[in-house]
Amino acid sequence: MNFCISPDHKAISQEAINRLGVKVGDNKRIIRMDTLKSIIVGFSFFDMDVRKIYDKLKSDDKTISIIFVNSKLVYGWDHVLGILKIINEEEKRNIKSDIKNVEIEFLLRICYTNQIKDALKANFGDSKNKTFVVVLISKFGDNLSNTLGTLMSYGIEDSNLIVPNTTKKDYILNYFFKDKFKGNSHLLLNNEEKYLKFLVEKAAISLN
Known about the structure:
208 residues, alpha+beta, PF0523-like, 7-stranded mixed beta sheet, 8 helices, 42% helix, globular
């Protein structure tokens, strides 16, 4: 897989770049996977009505896929990139899916479900939440940069919203996987690498 991350991509550390095996590219802030291009940004909105913001961004450019993910559900860069890799591999292999909308597919995978209503509840159930990780996807880099520019007028960028922490880890386990473990078996996931692998594997099979 051909990864490419801009040198100006603020929130991805050199350590993460080395771990993910990415290449550094020229286009500002854009992550590349083959023909798929993406910008990922942690964002604290001024307004709780993110649907209105989504509608505005889509009306400006319908070629962009826009996903607002509750920041509590995002366990670091590797988590988001892992799901993007799944979607990219499907496209490369021409795997047909019942889900034709990339926005819906991403949301279903990061909520580990094949039920849209469950994903919407998990992601947007807290109507007062203003902190999201915004994932912009397109095949056109310039369009992504333009959409990001528009997005910036609606809030404040905060890359810390992407960073994994214990609070997020516990929330994800309790919300999505509480009934999947017996006793203290969840402690098998106390290793960060194992936990992340667990999340990405669950995302990969969520639509089955």
